[in-house]
Design a protein that fits this description.
Layout (H helix, E strand, L loop, with lengths): L2 H24 L5 E2 L11 E8 L10 H10 L4 E8 L3 H13 L6 E2 L6 H9 L3 E5 L8 E7 H6 L9 H13 L14 H11 L3 H8 L9 H13 L12 H9 L5 E5 L3 H4 L6 E4 L5 E4 L6 E4 L4 H20 L6 H12 L2 E3 L8 H16 L5 H11 L2
Parallel strand pairs: 2-3, 2-4, 9-11
Antiparallel strand pairs: 1-3, 4-10, 5-10, 6-7, 6-8, 6-9
Helix pairs in contact: 7-9, 14-15
Length: about 400
């Protein structure tokens, strides 16, 4: 084994040990290693990759993709996978920790979340490239809904305007059902997803959502967005601020709410619902679509052979994902149809705004706004104070 491979293997072992210690400190389960079937030879180029394991199976959603690449390039390249048992947010936190100690693996997922993280990687020359999937379907978002609840409330179809949306929320609430499945924490993204779609109903709001890292949030579109978030929590569970997105999704699937926002990644869970499900664009034909949501990244480790292998895998991922047969369930077909026919498209706020504002300031200020302890103007004043 040559010196480069020895060094590379030591780095992989070091990252594994560090992640293992972090798991113990955080009370996580022990890191599992993916068992690949490709033959390992002394001259095989090893490509470290960090993935999240699914809570139900303990395996990665991408295990077939990894195994397929390792088989096709056996004797040349080998993806060396480390699995961690984390939520999406926990995974991103782990990336920041590894970035701080310069121990990032060569391939990471969820790479585009957090503009601050990407900027830091670029400044430190650790960012080699971002590789999104070409099909925007995988990074689009709209609204899932419960057709059975709609029917019981006399609602024949998903509302086409925002005035109709709030009117329907009132009707559903008056009939004794919960209109929206929302959650607290995690930057309140479900509510903000709806509210940013609402913000695009006029030209000023649409243009603001397109801004990358806005210098100021003291403007009418952002005020409208905050007022919308505040209003949305009038139509959700009484304990919404105390539950996670996973819990709100489980309640929707159990038939306890009429609507929940989300993307194509939620299709497998929604397929398990025991009621007649539907999917729609947000009102006025709007979808939030951003290919960066599906992006993985290659981290610059200075080893040209490894970087070339990582690029080869990114091409393999792109080609094989495009060739994957999509689900033919009713809800998947509806999602595809809405995506194909949507008339308005805007980027996801999560990739546009400062990470600190989304992850820290929203978490600290949103509960006070929703509980009416502070006003929209107070929210913006506090936001401005902490970011100047």
């Amino acid at each position: 084994m040559n010196v480069k491979n020895v060094i590379k293997k030591l780095i992989c072992i070091t990252v594994t040990i560090i992640l293992g210690l972090n798991n113990v400190a955080c009370g996580d389960t022990e890191i599992d290693r993916v068992k690949n079937t490709a033959t390992r030879e002394s001259d095989v180029v090893t490509i470290p990759i960090l993935l999240r394991s699914e809570p139900d199976s303990g395996d990665s959603t991408y295990s077939d993709l990894i195994d397929g690449f390792n088989k096709e390039y056996a004797g040349q390249y080998q993806l060396d996978v480390t699995l961690i048992s984390e939520t999406e947010e926990g995974y991103r936190t782990r990336l920041k920790e590894l970035n701080a100690i310069d121990e990032l693996p060569t391939i990471i997922t969820d790479a585009a979340f957090g503009s601050d993280f990407l900027s830091l990687m670029e400044e430190n020359d650790r960012y080699y490239g971002l590789y999104p999937l070409s099909d925007g379907l995988y990074s689009s978002a709209g609204m899932y809904y419960n057709n059975d609840i709609f029917r019981k409330c006399g609602i024949s179809s998903y509302p086409s305007t925002w005035d109709e949306f709030f009117q329907d929320c009132e009707i559903i609430k008056a009939e004794g059902y919960t209109p929206l499945a929302l959650h607290g924490g995690g930057d309140y993204w479900s509510a903000v997803l709806i509210a940013t779609a609402y913000m695009t109903r006029n030209e000023e709001g649409a243009e603001f959502l397109k801004e990358i890292l806005p210098e100021s949030f003291d403007n009418d579109p952002f005020k409208d967005m905050l007022a919308c978030v505040d209003r949305l929590y009038d139509y959700t569970y009484s304990d919404a601020l105390n539950i996670s997105h996973d819990q709100s999704l489980a309640r929707f699937i159990a038939g306890e709410a009429a609507m929940i926002p989300g993307g194509y990644w939620m299709v497998p869970q929604i397929e398990g619902a025991m009621f007649n499900t539907g999917f729609s664009t947000f009102c006025q034909g709007v979808m939030l679509v951003d290919n960066r949501m599906s992006a993985w990244a290659i981290v610059n480790n200075g080893d040209e052979a490894v970087l070339q292998g990582a690029q080869l895998f990114m091409e393999y991922r792109r080609d094989n994902t495009a060739e994957e047969p999509k689900s033919h369930s009713s809800i998947a077909k509806q999602f595809q149809a809405e995506y194909d026919s949507h008339t308005g498209e805007f980027p996801n706020y999560q990739l546009q705004w400062q990470n600190k504002i989304i992850k820290e300031d929203f978490d600290s200020l949103m509960p006070s706004l929703i509980k009416n302890d502070i006003s929209v103007e107070d929210f913006i004043d506090m936001l401005s104070m902490t970011n100047n």
